[in-house]
Design a protein that fits this description.
Largest sheet: none
Number of strands: 0
Structural class: mainly alpha
């Protein structure tokens, strides 16, 4: 992603914006704290440059997590056989189970993580809704799926439902309950709950 700040005249930055995101990802996947000062120091960047590119630490984390989530969901879809509602459900279920098993930011900074992952004003939620909608549209255009709900609304509901089950507090006893999450996503996709064990529609 190109940022206008990278093209301003003057002394060139010691590293690129993408290199910052790559280093941040490495820290996150290693279960280390992603610290903007430390990233800037390691890459030889001025703190002002980091703030021009990302604003705050939460914005940096949001963009990095959105990139990572998009890549993982697309990779899972490529490995998931079949088409239609069954294949979409299997794909979303595998993705949700991966997230449920992930520690990282959620374990370290739960309140901040919840804001980053579930805020409509952030990077993660809007990009995930857009990707899920695109996946639904592809199945519709291929003639494999007839949505009972408008695709934008369906995509938003699927993402928001997953957020509730994966990131919410334990008050209602649903956090991490991927089985119930799968059942509800099946209903949204027009599948009967008893069919949720199917990996894909033939």
């Amino acid at each position: 992603m190109t940022n206008a700040a990278t093209t301003r005249p003057g002394r060139p930055a010691a590293a690129t914006r993408d290199e910052v995101l790559t280093l941040a990802r490495g820290r996150f996947l290693a279960a280390e704290r992603v610290d903007m000062k430390a990233l800037a120091r390691e890459l030889g960047l001025a703190r002002a440059t980091m703030h021009r590119w990302f604003g705050t630490r939460e914005e940096l984390l949001g963009e990095m997590l959105a990139d990572l989530a998009e890549e993982r969901l697309l990779a899972i879809r490529r490995r998931t056989p079949g088409s239609g509602a069954g294949a979409l459900l299997e794909c979303f279920d595998r993705f949700n189970r991966e997230l449920a098993a992930t520690k990282g930011l959620l374990a370290q900074e739960r309140e901040r993580a919840f804001r980053i992952l579930s805020s409509g004003a952030g990077a993660v939620q809007p990009r995930m809704v857009a990707l899920v909608e695109r996946m639904i549209d592809e199945e519709i255009e291929a003639g494999h799926f007839r949505a009972r709900i408008a695709p934008p609304t369906l995509a938003y509901a699927i993402v928001r439902l997953a957020e509730s089950f994966l990131y919410n507090d334990a008050m209602y006893g649903i956090r991490g309950d991927t089985e119930r999450l799968r059942e509800l996503e099946a209903v949204l996709l027009g599948l009967e709950p008893r069919r949720t064990e199917l990996t894909a529609e033939r």
